[in-house]
Structures are given as C-alpha cells and as structure tokens.
C-alpha cells in the first residue's frame, strides 16, 4: 500500500528534468507535448527520479486534456491514447529499475483547469466556471487515466475548494471506487490560491474513502509545516507534501524567479508533523530528491 505507515518518497519536477535534458517546453501542452514527440525522454526522466530514491513517478499528464490536445489538432481517440501512454511510460520506468526489492508506484497526474489555460491560472483559481462545467472538464480525462490502472490518481495543484469538490464529484460520477486518489492544493499565505481557509479546503476530503491522502504541492516550502498540521487534523487522512523549489513563477515572463529555498533538512520536520508522503515539485531535481531520501534514512 502507498500509505502503509512509513514515509514514502515522491519524485520532483518532471518538466524541470525534461528541460534540463534540453527540451523546450514553452508549448501550451508543456511536458505533455513529449507524450507524442519524444516519449523515451519521459521514461528517462522518470528513471532518473526512481534511481535518485523516489518511490513514486508522477506521469506527464498534468497539462494533458482533451480540449488542450484538440487545440493542437489531436482528435479524441489519439488524445485518450496519449493519456494512457503517460501511465504506460511511468510503468516502463518502474520496470527499468526493478530488481532491488524496493516498492515503487505510479501516480497519474491530473492538473487543474487552469493548467489548460497555460497562463498561470492554477495559481489563482476562480475561473468563472460553474461546478457543472468543471466536472465536465475533469471527468473524461479522469476516466481515461483511471482505466489505465495507475496505482493512484494525483489531483494536484488545485487552487480552489470549488475545483477540488468538482474533481471529487467527477470521480463519484465515474463510479470507480477502487481507484485511490490524493488531493493536493497549491497554497500561499496559509490559504488556497483562491483565498479559502485550509480548514475548508481539507474538509472536502474528510470522510471520502477514495481519497488516501491530502496535502499541498507547488507551493513555497515555507508553507508546508503549517499545512501539514491542518491537513492531518481536519481530514483524518495521511498527509502528502511536495513543494516547489521556493522560486516564484512569473506567468507573464514565463520563467522562474527568486532564490530556491527547498531544503531536504526540512523533511524530517514535515514528517514529525504528520507528513506521510514527501517530495518536490517544480524546479526540484533528482539530486534534491536523493538528498531528501538520505535525510529520511538518517533519522
């Protein structure tokens, strides 16, 4: 089980690693572009994180959606195949490092609606859509990803309680209770990006048996400790945390700015506070994950 009572190490920023390998991801599809254009590079990036000590590979489907693919002239059947491929590629990476007896898992990433807009909206939320419209956006992609049989669906970088509720409603409508999910918000100043309290945000998952963990990702590392305490108390679930490097995303300039503050030394404080799954997000490289894994092992 992914949440079996011990700390699980997640991977880091897949797109960051792909960029470091020389790929231009300025396209609106971001890393999902390589699902069609260079899938072997996605496998290689997953392998790099696994070999660094990650036990979970998060698929290259964060920015993948039927409307996003359609805008690139990719029809629905091919788009579904590419979504399934994201899970298959992560599995191939897992197979490539098998043999050392370590458990490893595949998490199918489902980013928020804001990722489709490719303008930083996932750091604001409040898209002006109804819950019905959000459910209609999320449901087809979640269905395809779930049918690909990942170990877990990652509902990640959610900026808004309303969108989290819509994603969970979409899953309920699919009636696939055997597929576990984690729910992870992006937060700032102790609130969701849309301004709701974290108590309200994490309460959405309380009592939902399909949600195996709740937490935060793609936020400043400074936000993590307080979020862990609230998530554990409000949801009653294991807590997942994977912040970014601490740099800030400049949506207009399409670049990261500021100094990194991600420190593997902090991981034990997060774990002591209740975090059960820990890793990194944007700008966190395999070397950072290796340091994080070592920090956990020395305690």
From TrEMBL:
It is an enzyme of class 2 (transferase). GO terms for biological process: methylation. Signal peptide: none annotated. InterPro entries: HCY_dom (IPR003726), HCY_dom_sf (IPR036589), Hcy_S-methyltransferase (IPR051486). Zn(2+) binds at residues 218, 281-282. GO terms for molecular function: methyltransferase activity. Gene3D superfamilies: Homocysteine-binding-like domain (3.20.20.330). Residues 1-296 form the Hcy-binding domain. Its EC number is 2.1.1.10. Its cofactor is Zn(2+). It holds the Pfam family S-methyl_trans. Keywords: Metal-binding, Methyltransferase, Transferase, Zinc. This is Homocysteine S-methyltransferase.
């Amino acid at each position: 089980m992914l949440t079996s009572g011990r700390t699980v190490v997640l991977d880091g920023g897949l797109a960051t690693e792909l960029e470091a390998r020389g790929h231009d991801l300025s396209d609106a599809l971001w890393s999902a572009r390589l699902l069609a254009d260079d899938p072997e590079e996605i496998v290689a990036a997953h392998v790099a994180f696994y070999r660094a000590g990650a036990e979970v590979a998060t698929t290259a489907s964060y920015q993948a959606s039927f409307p996003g693919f359609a805008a690139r002239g990719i029809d629905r059947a091919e788009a579904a195949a590419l979504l399934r491929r994201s899970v298959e590629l992560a599995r191939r990476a897992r197979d490539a490092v098998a043999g050392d007896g370590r458990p490893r898992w595949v998490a199918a990433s489902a980013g928020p609606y804001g990722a489709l807009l490719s303008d930083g909206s996932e750091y604001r939320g409040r898209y002006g859509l109804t819950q019905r419209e959000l459910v209609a956006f999320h449901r087809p992609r979640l269905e395809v990803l779930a049918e690909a049989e990942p170990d877990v669906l990652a509902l990640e970088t959610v900026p808004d309680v309303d969108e989290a509720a819509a994603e969970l409603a979409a899953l309920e409508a699919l009636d696939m209770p055997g597929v576990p999910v984690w729910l992870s918000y992006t937060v700032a100043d102790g609130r969701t990006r849309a301004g709701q309290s974290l108590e309200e945000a994490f309460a959405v998952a309380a009592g939902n048996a399909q949600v195996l963990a709740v937490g935060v990702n793609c936020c400043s590392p400074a936000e993590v400790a307080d979020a862990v305490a609230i998530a554990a108390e409000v949801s009653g679930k294991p807590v997942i945390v994977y912040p970014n490097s601490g740099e800030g995303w400049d949506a207009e300039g399409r670049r990261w700015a500021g100094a990194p503050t991600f420190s593997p030394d902090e991981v034990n404080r997060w774990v002591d506070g209740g975090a059960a799954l820990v890793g990194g997000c944007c700008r966190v490289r395999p070397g950072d994950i290796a340091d994080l894994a070592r920090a956990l092992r020395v305690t």
